[in-house]
Amino acid sequence: MNAIQNLDNIAEFRQDFAIIANWLKFGCKALDLGCGDGELLHFLRGSMEVRGYGVEKDDTNWLSCMSNGINVIQMDLEAGLSGFEAQSFDVVILSQTLQAMHNTEHIVQEMLRVGREAIVTFPNFGYWRNRLQFLNGRMPVSEELPYQWYDTPNVHLCTINDFDKFCASHNIHIKERLVLTSGERIHFMPNLLGSLAMYRLEKK
Questions:
Q1: pLDDT tens string 96-126
Q2: Does residue 202 contact residue 175 with C-beta atoms inside 8 Å?
């Protein structure tokens, strides 16, 4: 699907995009790490006039961003964000890419150095459907975890409880946390019933 499409259609099918937009200030400066084809940045630019920049390693995605008018830098996130000055962005976003990072601790700390806030979203490995597949002797495959065990880019799957503990132990303040399943917000037993976790973070 081309990134350039009707914003209302994107919001309808990507509730996580709408939530991220709601967390941002109008016209803010954002950095999207692992931005893919730039769909999120396109949505934020159209809905919130965000001045967005993306970072993407994959050649095909990088070319898609360029062809769709998205400001993008081609680089490997694992190399860090040393090229960006401290507090040079209002927000740094890592949308459903955390689980594919080898040095998770470093990238989250770098996000909070470069941005005044950070937004992190990831599939919740503690979701009950994932647990059920694991109990049945299979690695989980779902909408949020669409890969088979042999071709997955994911290296650090975690649960909501894991990430809460990570933030507490790394002096990170959770400003907001929302948990979704099929686009619906989950309030009861989120670590069991939620498939996608969304965090808004800042340094304590």
A1: 999 999 999 999 999 999 999 999 999 999 9
A2: yes
Q: What is the DSSP secondary structure assignment for residue 67, as one 8-state letter?
A: H
Residues 6+ apart with CB under 8 A from 89: 29, 30, 31, 53, 114, 115, 116
Rounded to 10 degrees, what is the CA torsion of 188, 192, 198, 204?
Answer: 80
- Residue found by looking up tokens 């940045």 in the block: 41
Give residue 99's identity as a one-letter amino acid code: Q
- Letter for the amino acid at 20? I
pLDDT tens per residue, range 7-50? 555 555 689 999 999 999 999 999 999 999 999 999 999 999 99
At 76-95, the pLDDT tens digits run: 998 889 889 999 999 999 99
Q: Report residue 44 as tokens.
A: 């934020």
User: What is the signed CA dihedral for 9, 6, 178, 28, rounded to 10 degrees?
Assistant: -170
Angle at CA 135, nearest 5°, toward 131 and 140? 50
pLDDT score of 10: 56
Asked whether the whole model's pTM tops 0.85, one would answer yes
Domains and CATH numbers, the chain: 7-203 (3.40.50.150)
